[in-house]
């Protein structure tokens, strides 16, 4: 049974999941809006079922191949490049679980989703323990199928798309930057990748924390096993525990079967806990126990299950400040703070801006089918002088927009000035847009892939607007502004810095 909560256009959210618990599907927009650019293999002996799944995925842009039995499917999956595989449990000859086991060994970075019409919860457990990425009951729910496949495809890309450090290669993502601060990051990265220690990656939004997490994984000793990422901020608090720890049948109303959580799924592999600062205090305590004891109990379970996981965590939050406010556990902080990589904000390494500009322009020119992109020297210098509250992500988005706007003509300083003014205009006031219009605009940006997560973006816009207005009305008097806002002066100063709002005096 699926309940869709439609906010605005295609928001897909709450769902009574196939294990009977509430589940936050992906927190992203419908694949219909997103367009799934992926190559998927469906292994199913039922022509009807294969067609239903294939049509549902083709409709959103995926390229789909179908195999009718396990042997053929396995051969295709091993030979050809796919982003994800969907296999039925019951197949003539080589069964679905065997397909999963074989691919887990030979192509551990290829996510495999098991489908079955059997109501036996044991199949799901065996599949996930055997290395399946996820499990879908039949008859398939089209939206659920698309959502799970979309997640699987992004997981596959996170694992398989190489992250090059300091150099540019086709078909790879690159960490760009020659500044001293980035050189330090690369050194830390090299040192920590080959050790099993838990690494905490810190840095403002858009500074490249996810890239670093992928690089740590790819250059680490568990690169031949899966990389499982959980965004703690994208999953509602009360669902996060079950997502991580799993649950036993009957653990809570509606938990109709046992569910394997991400910790267990990441046994012998790597688990990336993104936005760890957004985890609530109770769960922080439970996470600390996992880090110390390396064993878990499923929600509602008694059995201690050993988990051998390499943890990578990331946050853009100021954990020290959170500890002071009683929002983050100090013991967990000390546990996590042993090995850290801190990414510098872009405004502290403006010397890297020209390199990033070259890199992104070349990439986007290729994506947009343009021969080459050109940008005026003054325009690059202008970019070097900006505060970049959204860091590399913001720079990347501005360049993308500039390229689309100029369609092959040289990008000038004025173009960038205009685009930056648009993107950082005080949307609620000066822009003359209503709250509803802004909301729609932000949702549209998320659908276009310009921003990651409309929720965080709205929060950022509101904060920026509120702080900007307070500073303006107080004529730059931070103490006054802080009082009006009900924030400590320290918090306000940090936030102003984060958003690059100055014009202030203490
Ligand atoms: N040093 C870099 N070189 C090249 N691209 C980068 C670099 N840093 C960030 N990016 C790009 O900027 C975008 C944002 O990076 P990423 O998602 O890793 O940031 P983040 O720190 O995890 O942000 P958030 O805290 O908002 O999740 C991505 O498209 C990433 O590829």
TrEMBL record:
GO terms for molecular function: ATP binding; sequence-specific DNA binding. Residues 175-404 form the Sigma-54 factor interaction domain. It is found in: Cytoplasm. InterPro entries: AAA+_ATPase, AAA_lid_NorR, CheY-like_superfamily, Homeodomain-like_sf, HTH_Fis, P-loop_NTPase, Sig_transdc_resp-reg_receiver, Sigma_54_int. One of its GO terms (biological process) is phosphorelay signal transduction system. GO terms for cellular component: cytoplasm. Residues 39-153 form the Response regulatory domain. It holds the Pfam family Sigma54_activat. This is DNA-binding transcriptional regulator NtrC. It comes from Phragmitibacter flavus.
